[in-house]
Amino acid sequence: MKTEEITFIKGLKNGETLAYTRIYDLYHERLYSFVIRFVKVPELAEDILQEVFLTLWKVRERVDSEQSLQAYLYKISRNCVFKALKKNARQQQFRERIMAASGAGAKTASDEERLTWKEYENILTDAIDALPVQRRKVFKLCRDEGKTYDGVAAELGISKNTVKEHMVLATRAIKLHISKYVDFQSLLLFLVLSCM
């Protein structure tokens, strides 16, 4: 084990936020690459990493300075991925039940139902098109192309925090736009099915 890593672990165990930040900076990208292979969705991968580093902080006093910190972080990451996948599987079952109950998932959906869902998709497209140019670009790169916040930040020459802010504001604006045209229950169903 590297001397630097041992120093970070000792600092972490003593509750030093600087050591914690250095560990985050050192391992974030590696763990992101590991997590994204399983979950495929950048936003979910980032959420999982937040959980990983939160868990590390909570159990910092139990971290063994004789063991590899990297191996320990991968173990936490694996557990957080399994937890997230299990949760998402339950949500997928929930979405399928909603679709079945609403008739949206039926193979024999009526022309009226298909027309309604097409209308919702058009409203969503209009909402995205109404975003300011940079915000729309960020949203499409993250959502449609599956790029990471870091990747989008590098591509557009902006900070990762700016990318996050654009995504929050874009999602808020899209939901607000959709709510003008769709009643609350239909909006909820559409948002659940669209995984927004």
TrEMBL record:
Domain spans labelled RNA polymerase sigma-70 region: 24-90
Stored InterPro entries: RNA_pol_sigma-70-like, RNA_pol_sigma-70_dom, RNA_pol_sigma70_bacteroid, RNA_pol_sigma70_r2, RNA_pol_sigma70_r4_t2, RNA_pol_sigma_r2, RNA_pol_sigma_r3/r4-like, WH-like_DNA-bd_sf
Domain RNA polymerase sigma factor 70 region 4 type: 123-170
Origin: domain of life: Bacteria
Recorded family membership: Belongs to the sigma-70 factor family. ECF subfamily.
GO molecular function, one term: sigma factor activity
Upper classification of the organism: Bacteria, Pseudomonadati, Bacteroidota, Chitinophagia, Chitinophagales
GO BP terms in the entry: DNA-templated transcription initiation
Keywords: Sigma factor, Transcription, Transcription regulation
UniProt-recorded name of the protein: RNA polymerase sigma-70 factor, ECF subfamily
